[in-house]
Amino acid sequence: MLETLNNFFTIFGASIIVPIIIFIIALFLHVKFSKAIMSAFYAGVGLTGFNWVIAEFTPIVTKIVRQMVNNTGIKLPVVDIGWQAGSLASFGSSVGITFFIFGLVFELTIFALGITKVFMASNLWNNFGFMIWGTLAYYVTHNFWLSLSLSFFMLLYTLVIAEIQADRWSEYFEIKNATVASLHNIEQTIPAILLDPLWNLLGFNKVKLTPEVFKDRLGVFGEPTSLGVILGIIIGILGNLNNLTDIDAWGEILKFAIQLAAVMTIFPLITDVFAKAFIPLADAIDSRQKEEMKEKTHPKRWFLGIDDGVGYGEPATIISGMVLIPIMVLLAFVLPGNRTLPVVDLIALPFMVESIVAITRGNILKIIANGVVWFSLGLYASSWLGSIYTEAVSHYGATIPTGVVLITSFNLMARPLNALVFAAFISQNPLWIGICLVTYLVLLFLLRRYRSQIWNYLRKMSEKNIN
């Protein structure tokens, strides 16, 4: 049965299944049939557009990154080959596929019970982020129920973090009542909140590095398209440092500059289409909230979990992500004790900074600073997990590239918080697991009781970055 359902989801894909889910949610919210069907179509078209652009852009930027890494001469034993191998392995394990099916039921149940206000089921494709950690735990412990519990626990605390940042994400990316809740791209909310007072003390909030400021001060050169060209030339040069006297190298540099500019220009257009899928749903949610206010009941604002590809091409997001690429390569070289060489998943950095972007209101200096701190810690987490990840991925069906000793996924494994929780569970020590559970329950209690105060604090915090 599990294999049949897995094949069903694989055959139809996100561009079909997600629109169906959106259509069902719309009807449940009493959206007119005509609007509900158009919401579904827009969702499918938007996801298809995201996939097309990213699929075309990924091999181009990956080539530049590989050249950049080769130019540094860095030789580290744990090589990042991208998240795809981990995703494949997670679907090849009994723990992973069990979570994929029953995790969906669990997501619906905890939403119905009000434990979470994020409807994660609308973004089920990112469930592999939970599945891979359960898969690794099962490989280490051979304890099925403990490993499955780890995946479910990671889902629970991810939803708490997703709801904490939901109001900021929804406002910044201008998609009402929507948020992202993928395990591999949500924990950056923590450093974005905790480190913000430090950045303000250092005056980072007074350094006006935002897309809006670029437009005002640089004119035509501050437009996203122009910034894409400029940033593309810089990264292209870094990837061709050894061949700058070669005409072919300059051809590659200029082509990459235009390709990056194309992504920064086209992605917002696709985002606008994708956002149309949620407008009727957001309006229906707002309408319900107004009715609750009239009845003097507490508004039950909730959020749809959507694909984090929607924010990839936002100017501050992609600029920060691209700038962090050479920075992370350099840090991998200089950090003492690091064994991880980030390569393929560096293209995922714009996904990885989305929550930071929303919380800091697009302050590029803060985004980069947070990324440097958190992803540096992530390199150590990935280094520790290198042998476990390699053996588990190989065991559950992914092919290890020839000549590579150990592999990792910078996007999936360079996660300090997730690594700590994983360590607690595989220890099988009731004390460490209990600390994780108690911490989650405390956070959930505080969120349920003080959600509006938390959101107000984050709003005021983000406003300190306004020009």
TrEMBL record:
Transmembrane segments: 6-29, 41-61, 81-106, 118-138, 144-162, 218-238, 258-279, 316-335, 341-360, 367-386, 419-447
Claim: Transferase is one of the keywords in the record: yes
Keywords: Cell membrane, Membrane, Phosphotransferase system, Pyruvate, Sugar transport, Transferase, Transmembrane, Transmembrane helix, Transport
Residues of the signal peptide: none
Topology versus the membrane: Multi-pass membrane protein
GO molecular function ontology, one term from the record: transferase activity
Coiled coil: none
Cross-referenced Pfam families: EIIC-GAT
UniProt key word Kinase: no
GO biological process, one term: phosphoenolpyruvate-dependent sugar phosphotransferase system
GO cellular component, as recorded: plasma membrane
Name of this protein: Phosphoenolpyruvate-dependent sugar phosphotransferase system EIIC, probable galactitol specific
Organism listed in the record: Ligilactobacillus salivarius NIAS840
